[in-house]
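Batch job 17 of 40 flagged for manual review because the log was empty.
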Amino acid sequence: MRAGAGFIFSTILIILLFGGREVTFIFYNWWLAKWSEDEGHRHRYWRNCTTAKNKSMNTIRSMNDTGWNHYQQQQFNIYSGSYM
């Protein structure tokens, strides 16, 4: 009976560990995609005069260089901190 309980516990533990690893990798990929998209919003040349409807895109495009550098450093710190 004790051997069966150990097997069940170890199976559940392995599933939780692998599931946690997958969730972590999905978060890293999502964060990098968001970060890359922000970079694209910052440096994209807009050919028409329409206003962007995305509030975060408007915020990013209206930043000066100092604000942009601070934002990038903050994003890097969040990504690095979540990796540790």
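Reviewer: the log was empty due to a logging misconfiguration, but the result itself is present. Residues 2-83 form one domain. Unflagging and moving on to job 18.
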